[in-house]
């Protein structure tokens, strides 16, 4: 009798512990909508939106953050295995959302993401978030990259943060001290290079250009690609990355773009190859670099580092004269999407929350809280930050008669690591470790191998 | 009929006692089974599959991952080849430098009569303090305007102070990270050698001195051979460190600039958590590293044992 009581007590304890741990891992009950994000700067905005939406819907929104990216990825992988996923997973758009959908971790939300809802978003965002036949085809059959379970034209997440890379931030004080007029935006790549030469000649330690080149993609995605797009024109730019590599990376025009990029080699701040993205922003914010290349998303980072908006002027990476386009304009690309997990018991509520987050009210509050661009179209005048207003204008006012550059569109690329490998090759310019023809030929070979792997 | 009954009864009696023993060791066995055996078997099986960590199923590929890593895949092999060269540099430099510095410091500390405990503690500080904060501190010191360049410039050695700092330069990044590895591992080598030195009978050293042996000769022909077991241990530890430590490289350079400080350990991490997640490649590379480490340890121990 006594033994059976003890056994009962032990079993009850185990049951209680199991019940508690199940509750804590899933993080909520019927009235709690769980949201995971990987961006610390978003917590306040998501919680504020959650509080407002929760009042109207009689629910509580619980936001959890897991950083850095690799820890977040591991968290999702583990939660998918143990079926303890949250209702909404924040994920990188144009890739991250599709990868989770391919694995069955997030749901197809095409039917809910109606055209009237899509119309609320910035021009370019929907185009970027739409999975195309070309992207599926180019993802190949490799089990780690393929998207062949997905359907073209379908949506697997709702973009709520948008933006574009290719934005240059300049320190007005340092520019003025070097005799560069900060109120005049350089009209061409060549003019911009001349301006950096001036600031660097004035002070070689602080007059240079910074970006987080320890992550080689920054130089490639944020600087080279916009410049090359304008110089080569859309057809040649995407053709170079395509199956036929037409024109080749080693062609005359392509070599010219590499030469233009190489003009920056002596103009980087000392030690730029050792700088991470945050460190580069910090160097700029603390006056150790006169220029920093980033994106619309850099403003919130600079603000965190205490930079006053009055000290900064911004403009997009300028087009080089002599190329196909004399001016480059951007369209907003979807940057972060909210995806509804496949195990969510609150699908309707999750969709409703994402709808609120991309409404004018929700998106305006999101922008004010994060100093980042929301994916939804909002009245610019409602924003308090003058720089944020400029950034919104940057992606909503394309040059007349010109197709805006979708900076995060890699649909013409073969699947795999070719973009990263190309970025590493381009980092050889600031490292001064290879010649222009060598780099061009190596990139060409990388693309040939990558396409062979896809075929 | 009787004998079999006795044979059956005796173990039954013992089983009651065994159950208690088994209950006591069960937590340790379960922990080892889950965190040891299961993980090792899981990782080994994964090395024969392709998996991005998200998809519900693995794709079995046999030994293709190993073939790809060893030169059969142009998208993977060049990275592994460069990481191999960098790792080999570490495997060569780290054991030699740590051995020399560790032994020298141990001899120095052993010869000191006063404050030996304090000095030993001071020299051991790098080992107990190494971690994220210290690696970040080194990163700051290696910056273009960091402490290392400042000291070099103050000494008039401007040509040795890289304009881009030590970590922003392809020619110095690997050496700079290995230097931090040396700094953080010399103390453990010193402590091991010190322990070894204290086991050498004073009479042996005295006899050598009486026979007229110089200090250098005493060290080279008497102390060093007697410390062979410790040397073997230090070499094995340093080879493991050079092969498998990726955290230091991840935090200080992330393998850059331009893969100049990428090592096999870091490459394995990058396969698992990089731009394209491929846990199959990561696992296969991890097993290759483990195999190399085991072979080197066996060779090293055999060579030193044959010299004894």
Instruction: Give the ordered list of helices and strands of chain A.
Output: HEHEHEHHHHEEHHEHHHHEHEEHHHHHH
CATH third-tier fold name of the largest domain in chain B: MetI-like fold
Query: How many strand segments of chain B?
Result: 2
Second-tier CATH architecture of the largest domain in chain A = 3-Layer(aba) Sandwich
The helical percent of chain A reads 40-55%
Name the CATH architecture of the largest domain in chain B: Orthogonal Bundle
Pfam families (chain B): BPD_transp_1
Main location (chain B): membrane
Subcellular location (chain B): Cell membrane
Protein name (chain B): ABC transmembrane type-1 domain-containing protein
Characterization of the model:
The complex is a heterodimer of chains A (455) and B (308). The radius of gyration of chain A is 24 Å and the shape is globular. Chain A is α/β, with parallel strands linked by helices and 455 residues long. Chain A folds into 2 domains: 199 residues, Periplasmic binding protein-like II (D-Maltodextrin-Binding Protein, domain 2, 3-Layer(aba) Sandwich); 206 residues, Periplasmic binding protein-like II (D-Maltodextrin-Binding Protein, domain 2). Chain B is mainly alpha-helical and 308 residues long. Chain B is 74% helix and 1% strand. In chain B, strands 1-2 form a two-stranded antiparallel sheet. In chain B, helix 3 packs across helix 12. In chain B, 35% of the residues are buried. The chains are: A alpha/beta (455), B mainly alpha (308). Chains A and B meet through helix 3, helix 4, helix 18, helix 19 and helix 20 of A and loops of B.
